[in-house]
Specification:
Elements: H1 10-20, E1 24-29, H2 36-45, H3 63-66, E2 72-79, H4 83-87, E3 97-98, H5 107-126, E4 132-135, H6 143-149, E5 154-155, E6 161-162, E7 170-177, H7 199-203, H8 221-224, H9 233-236, E8 242-244, H10 248-251, H11 271-274, H12 278-282, H13 286-293, H14 303-316, H15 323-326, H16 335-348, H17 350-363, H18 367-373
Parallel strand pairs: 3-8
Antiparallel strand pairs: 1-2, 2-7, 4-7, 5-6
Helix pairs in contact: 1-5, 14-16, 16-17, 16-18, 17-18
Bound molecules: iron/sulfur cluster (2 copies).
């Protein structure tokens, strides 16, 4: 209910959030995030962006540039590591690894529905319309900066928003609201709780983590698994058996130990999707991919990216038994598949496959794929 200073009191927000089952939330004003500007500017100027982000503009740091009526922001963190996913270990052998955020249902869908429920509940409690804009990775605004200012957690040296209760295994979202909302009275969260720990920086396979939680997005394997086409040589072996995302800087983090688990059924993992059979992925068609992965957050780049990553993972696993499955893919309609198969065969069985790769090289018309096959010319 309103009081003299606020349109929505904290107790009203708590009632609404609890009713719709939101585990963790905070409130901040819709004032611009001025301190973010130099960080964003250097991110783009130094060329550390992945190419997936929105271009630099005031839409990135000013909520009102995006939604003029915004007065407050409700920041939400939804935990996704369930008891079952916590216990899941990557089996040895020819299985790939999908990042744990994509083991259950796509959080974009889950969280958007919940933010809509929250806005409806607020409107019902107030007895008047509430104008909102839900952000679940869907606007140029920076969700971590919103969550930080709303007191949900702090930013670790791995660049992740870390909560006290659930560590960094949380999805972040925000609801921009055209009402003044009373801020919480909870004590502020420490800005930096990493102390002397540097485990994430030491564990990152590519050196993508810089100082002060800054990231070189171009070096980050999580983004690299999602780019289309060719992957630069220097990152291929570093990918290991990752076929979607990278969790290394989170799995080593001590703040992710002894945390509470998510009770959400939507995020219960499917082990076959979390650690998929790599050979089966080679033959994955678009329709089958949609059926298997369409409901997860690993689906948005399509099946060819996953097939390519599976080829790289098989080579990195040293799986020579995959050679008979790889050879026919020298004739795949996709040039990057042909190219990466040639690269994988060079690593797995160069002597046995040189002649067939040479035949493929002779008829290859794509310059990049042909380059990957050129090893077959060596005597
Ligand atoms: S996600 Fe992986 S590659 Fe990216 S910063 Fe973390 S450890 Fe490094
Ligand atoms: S691994 Fe250590 S340094 Fe990195 S975020 Fe976690 S606590 Fe901080």
């Amino acid at each position: 209910m309103p009081n003299d200073r606020y349109d929505i009191t904290m107790s009203t927000l708590e009632l609404a959030a609890n009713t719709v089952g939101i585990e963790k939330f905070g409130v901040t004003s819709a004032e611009p995030f001025h301190t973010l500007v130099p960080f964003l500017e250097s991110y783009y100027e130094e060329g550390r962006d992945t190419g997936f982000e929105h271009p630099m503009s005031d839409f990135r740091w000013n909520p009102r540039a995006y939604f003029t009526e915004a007065k407050s922001i409700i920041a939400v963190a939804v935990p996704y590591q369930t008891k079952q996913s916590q216990a899941m270990q990557h089996p040895s052998g020819r299985t790939g690894v999908v990042s744990r955020y994509a083991w259950g249902q796509d959080y974009h869908v889950v969280m958007k529905a919940q933010l809509e429920q929250l806005s409806m509940k607020l409107a019902a409690l107030l007895g008047e319309p509430v104008k909102v804009l839900a952000c679940v990775d869907t606007t140029p605004l920076v969700d971590r900066a919103i969550a930080l200012r709303a007191g949900i957690g702090w930013i670790g040296k791995n660049g992740m928003l870390i909560t006290k209760e659930y560590g960094s295994y949380v999805f972040l979202g925000a609801l921009l609201v055209d009402k003044n909302i009373e801020p919480a009275l909870t004590p502020s969260v420490p800005i930096d709780d990493c102390g002397e720990c540097n485990l994430c920086l030491q564990a990152c396979p590519t050196g993508a983590l810089l100082d002060q939680g800054r990231l070189d997005g171009k070096k980050c394997l999580s983004g690299i698994t999602q780019i289309k086409g060719m992957i630069p040589e220097e990152y291929r072996t570093k990918l290991g058996r990752r076929i979607w995302g990278c969790d290394t800087c989170q799995t080593v983090c001590p703040k992710n130990r002894h945390t509470l688990v998510s009770m959400r059924e939507e995020f219960e993992p499917d082990p076959a999707l979390g650690f998929p059979d790599l050979k089966a992925l080679l033959h994955l068609g678009g329709r089958q991919f949609k059926r298997l992965y369409g409901h997860t957050a690993a689906a948005w780049r399509g099946h060819q990216v996953i097939r390519r990553n599976a080829i790289i993972a098989l080579a990195n696993a040293g799986d020579t038994e995959a050679v008979p499955d790889l050879l026919p893919l020298l004739n795949d309609p996709r040039s990057e598949i042909r190219g990466f198969v040639a690269w994988a065969l060079h690593r797995l069985a160069p002597e046995d496959t040189r002649e067939l790769v040479y035949v493929a090289w002779k008829k290859e018309s794509d310059e990049l794929a042909k380059k990957e096959m050129a090893w077959s010319l060596e005597s």
